[in-house]
Amino acid sequence: MSAQQLSDLAEQRLRIGRTDGGQVALVNAALVDRGVTSTATTGAVTLSWKPYAADARYTIVRGETPIATTKPGQATFKDTTATAGTSHQYRIVPELKGDTSTARTWGLTVAVPKVNRGETETAAVQRTATTQAANAKAAASTTLTWTTFIPQKYTTQPIPKACKYSGSKYVYGGDNRGFDWESSRYRTSASAVINWKSRKVEGYTSVSATHVYKKSNKKQVAKKTASGKGMKVKKLGAGSGYAAIRMVTHATNPFCGGVAKVKGAIDGALTFHITRGGWEIRSGNHRRMPNHEIYIYNGGRVTYVYKNKYANAACLVGAALCDLKNLTGYYGKYK
After folding, report:
1. DSSP one-letter string for 243-288
2. Whole-angstrom Cα distance, residue 22 to residue 44?
3. Chain mean position to CA 120
């Protein structure tokens, strides 16, 4: 490899290594400071990470499909179904239990080598490494994320008989966090990843499970996840250096029937105009429960677009009890 190729590999924290069995492999150490690495051979991808607890379990997601859940304490996973000659997007998602203050969700892209005719395995790994490094350097991307979260560890349901579990005997689980883009705890999350070279926008959405506990001893009595059908990320258009994105965040409390048959919900929508230099919310609003945060990851730095603390816990029970916050007109530049 040339000096420039070696420099590109070092910049992207990629290197050529070997597995314990001696097979040549492409090692991605971009997240090594977080305790996460990937090792890709022509037949498999191995992920390893530092768990947040000794008995922690993780779900491995490839693309948008969960492919495995680890045993308690397991901190490595080997994907033998990875497709050679392609790049896979992986997420390592913690199954939260107990003290989750140090839990994190990790995501990484893994290029899987493929041996072409007349090529050695070592040459195939080197070619894949240099291609991935060059692409990563050229294909700059920007990620827009909108999350909602309940800041308390537990919260009560304030309207009698509006939900299946109400009154003084029960509490609902919160996310026990403040405004923190690194936190993996949320009620809803929507992200748009913009690739400036291809002008492609990839959308990801997620809704976390709702937990109900006995107030007296905090023993869990029920768990249910609201439908994520109302969550949307859509590209409205894109050109040289800009993208227009529509985001909708929507999830009801799955244990609540609402007030006067009108369900409460985490609810909001916005139209976002984003460029390589800054952003503007062209239109949008949201119900003022729970906390909302919008931020952009660009060029290795995070810039907060918007933060809002919740107004009324009743918002999650009945929409009629919850006012709207206008998002139109927020704009700025990256840090």
Report:
1. EEEEEEEEEE-TTB--BTTB--EEEEEEEEEEESSEEEEEEEEEES
2. 14
3. 37
pLDDT beyond 60 at 180: yes
Q: Which of 28-42, 73-87, 199-213 bottoms out in mean pLDDT, i.e. has the lowest? A: 28-42
Q: Which residue has the tokens 């023993």?
A: 219
CA atoms within 13 Å, Cβ hemisphere of 212: 18
From CA 173, how far away is CA 318, in angstroms rounded? 18
Summarised one tens digit per residue, pLDDT across range 46-86 is 999 998 888 889 999 998 789 999 999 999 999 999 999 99
Distance CA 19, CA 22 (A): 5
Contact 331, 279 (CB under 8 A): yes
Residues counted in the chain:
335
Q: What stretch(es) of the chain map to CATH 2.60.40.10?
A: 3-138
Tokens of 207: 């809704």
Phi, psi of 32 (to 5 degrees): -65, -30
Percent of the chain topping pLDDT 90: 49
Round to whole Å and give the CA distance between 107 and 190. Answer: 15
> What was the pLDDT predicted at 2?
75
Give the strand pairing for 87-95 and 106-111.
antiparallel
Under DSSP, the state recorded for 313 is: G
**What pTM, to 2 d.p., does this model score?**
0.62
16 is written with which tokens?
């050529």
CATH no. of 3-138: 2.60.40.10
Model confidence pLDDT, tens digit, residues 260-287? 565 667 899 999 999 878 899 999 999 8
